[in-house]
Amino acid sequence: MTTLTEGRHTGEHLISEASGTRSREVVTLISGQNLAPGSVLGKITLSGKYTQLAPGAADGSEAAAAVLFAEVNASAADKAAVVSARDTELDGTALGWPAGITGNQKIAATAQLKLLGIVIR
To answer: For the purposes of burial, counting CB atoms within 10 Å of the CB of 62, is it exposed (0-12), middle (13-18) or buried (19 or more)?
Structure first.
C-alpha cells in the first residue's frame, strides 16, 4: 500500500484573525528560500525584506516579525508574500520553525509575536 504524505496548506495554521485585511500584509520574501505556510519569519532591518526566522543572526531576522500565510518559492528571486502581521490567533502545531531552534529561542520568538498581537495557541 502506498503511503501519502500531505504537506501544509495555505492558512491551515490560522485559528482566527481580525476582520477584512487588518491582520495581513504583503511583504517581500528575500530570494534563496522556499517556505511553507506557517513559517515564522524575521525582518531584515536594512532591506525591510523578510526571511525565515534566524535566531542566531544579527540583521533583524533574529526577531520574529510575521508568519507566512501561503507557500512561497523565492528560490531564484525575491517574491511577494502574504503574511499574518498582527491580530491573529495561530495553531502552534502547524507552525514552521527553523531547523535547530532551541526551546528558549522558540519561547522568545513566541513572545515577540505576542507583542504584535499574534497569539500562538
So the answer is: middle
Half-sphere exposure of 5 (CA within 13 A, CB side): 1
Please provide residue 92's backbone torsions phi and psi, each rounded to the nearest 5 degrees: -60, -25
* Domain covering 14-120 in this structure, CATH number: 2.40.300.10
State the pTM of this model.
0.93
Parallel/antiparallel/unpaired status of strands 79-84 and 24-29: antiparallel
- Give residue-wise pLDDT tens across range 16-32: 999 988 999 999 999 99
Look-up of cell digits 530570494: 31
pLDDT tens profile 69-87: 999 999 999 999 999 999 9
CA distance 38 to 19: 20
Structural domain spans, the chain: 14-120
